[in-house]
Design brief:
Elements (H helix, E strand, L loop, with lengths): L1 H20 L1 H20 L6 E8 L5 E10 L2 E12 H4 L3 H7 L3 H5 L5 E7 L3 E9 L5 H7 L14 E2 H10 L3 E2 H8 L1
Antiparallel strand pairs: 1-2, 1-7, 2-3, 3-5, 3-6, 4-5
């Protein structure tokens, strides 16, 4: 038994000594691998980019604001903010708090969708956050609607170019165009 342990220790020491002789080469190769990984992540290859579209019905505040986070031509996340004035719904804040049924109510229990409703002084703000990596295709087909109203598209993966064309066709402008037109 003791001889077997000595034999195993001897093999372990041989393996360790073998790696010690190539220690500088191993460290150099690991350094190159780490450098390549860092270069890929900092280049934006794996990080998502953001584009914002807004629709104005009174040219003061956006009625619908849609932010897309995308990689390549695939939308990964969608943040939608819908603002609706109490006057347009013909009700008071108290009445609307009890009876308002917006998109956040429709999407409340979907996996991959977070919703919130904020009743401000004169406006209702609905916020809908959609993670398309977590939302099922079945749910998208069941709960889809016109994206220009802030609703979900019907297919996965969600195509950025098609979504942008649809929004522009319905009067949305991107944030860069909006800020350039203000100056």
């Amino acid at each position: 038994m003791i001889q077997l342990l000595r034999l195993r220790r001897g093999k372990l020491y041989n393996i360790i000594n073998y790696f010690k002789s190539y220690k500088k080469l191993i460290i150099f190769l690991l350094g190159i691998i780490v450098f390549i990984i860092l270069a890929l992540f900092t280049s934006g290859r794996f990080s998502s980019k953001k584009v914002t579209y807004m629709y104005f019905n009174n040219f003061k505040t956006p009625s619908v604001k849609i932010e897309y986070y995308y990689r390549g031509n695939k939308i990964v996340k969608q943040f939608t903010t819908i603002s609706t004035s109490y006057d347009s719904l013909k009700g008071s804040k108290k009445e609307l708090k009890k009876s308002y049924k917006g998109l956040s109510n429709k999407y409340r229990n979907l996996n991959g969708v977070k919703t919130s409703v904020n009743f401000d002084q004169s406006v209702i703000y609905e916020k809908i956050e959609v993670n398309f990596n977590k939302v099922s295709s079945k749910d998208l087909k069941k709960y889809n609607g016109p994206i220009e109203r802030g609703e979900l598209p019907s297919d996965k993966p969600v195509n950025l170019k098609k979504s942008e064309q649809q929004l522009k066709k319905n009067g949305f402008i991107d944030s860069q165009t909006y800020f350039h037109s203000k100056n």
